[in-house]
Design a protein that fits this description.
Elements: E1 2-8, H1 10-14, H2 18-27, E2 31-38, H3 42-48, H4 58-65, E3 70-77, H5 80-88, H6 101-105, E4 114-116, H7 120-130, H8 144-147
Antiparallel strand pairs: 1-3, 1-4, 2-3
This protein binds 2'-deoxyadenosine-5'-diphosphate and magnesium ion (MG).
Residues 52, 57, 61, 91, 109-110, 112, 115, 118 line the site of 2'-deoxyadenosine-5'-diphosphate.
Length: 149
């Protein structure tokens, strides 16, 4: 079982796509175990996107993610990282397939609506940045037995 971090970026909030995107992620069967509307400080943005420091788009990335409220979400399930990445679609809107979040709503490589951790290791690191202990809940859904063995 994995838990992964999803961020609905400021463009998703501003465009009124929080419900649409959350619904798509929920319908995969992954379980929401943490969720909050929040602002991202410059310090948090720098730490979250640390792997991209030095790249030409890094400053833009930090200014974008700090430009308005985001929704941070923790999703749990078998292969949660890969399932979220598939549901999100590719980074570049030229490559993101129709039916994916980015493929359906994204037209810019930067303003691409969602972040999803790219590995279980990244997920653990990023979840620690965005959620305090106690903000991630463990609970049973009545539908769990219909979703996984
Ligand atoms: P992803 O968000 O698909 O994991 P990433 O980790 O490579 O992609 O990059 C983080 C974000 O940085 C990405 O969502 C959008 C932005 N970005 C990536 N490559 C870019 C580029 N070549 N030009 C502008 N922005 C870029
Ligand atoms: Mg990434």
């Amino acid at each position: 079982m994995e838990t992964t971090l999803v961020l609905l970026k400021p463009d998703a909030v501003q465009r009124g796509l929080v419900g649409e995107i959350t619904g798509r992620l929920e319908r995969t069967g992954l379980k929401i175990v943490g969720m909050k509307l929040m602002s991202v400080t410059e310090d948090l943005a720098n730490r979250h996107y640390g792997e991209h420091a030095g790249k030409p788009f890094f400053e833009w990335l930090v200014s974008f993610i700090t430009s308005g409220p985001i929704v941070a979400m923790a999703l749990e399930g078998d292969n949660a990282v890969a399932i979220v990445r598939k549901t999100m679609g590719a980074t570049n809107p030229v490559d993101s397939a129709p039916g994916s979040i980015r493929g359906d709503f994204g037209a810019d490589i930067g303003r691409n609506l969602v972040h999803g951790s790219d590995s279980p290791e990244s997920a653990a690191r990023e979840l620690g940045l965005f959620f305090a202990e106690g903000e991630l809940l463990s609970y049973v859904r009545a539908t769990d037995v219909w979703i996984r063995e």
